[in-house]
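Suppose you are handed a protein chain with no further information: no name, no annotation, nothing but its sequence. What can you learn? This example shows the usual starting point.
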Amino acid sequence: MRRLLPVLVLVAVPTLPHAQEERPVPSDSSRVRIAGCAHDRAFIVDVPQGRERSSNGIAPGRRFRLSGPRSVLGNIRRREGSMVEITGLVRKSDLAGPGGVRLFGGRVRIGGAPPRDRNDPMYNQVVIDVESFQLLPDSCPAR
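A reasonable first move is to predict its three-dimensional structure. Written in structure tokens, the prediction is:
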């Protein structure tokens, strides 16, 4: 019986379900956790009551467009009035500031992409590829 117990433990361990492994982060992206409120596919960063501001450098009020699996986005959409904390991937270049060199109260950039239509509502929104989310006890402020 004493010899049987270690054998059973060794056989049972590989069959236990493993925790979901995080996918590797591409070199041009970074994984961030941000709290805020979601409305449809838009996400606005906010600081929950009684918590410190996160150290990821994303200011409250910044807007993101949610992208990811339909099941996850559907679950977030169902909790529209509540604050959620989202974990996802964002391109490092999108997290960086506006870029260029400050000159006479403006910015000077050389090269870059062709100008986009400023009437496009998605003009200045950064895309976050949502991996998971967590419901927070706070509610979203009234719009």
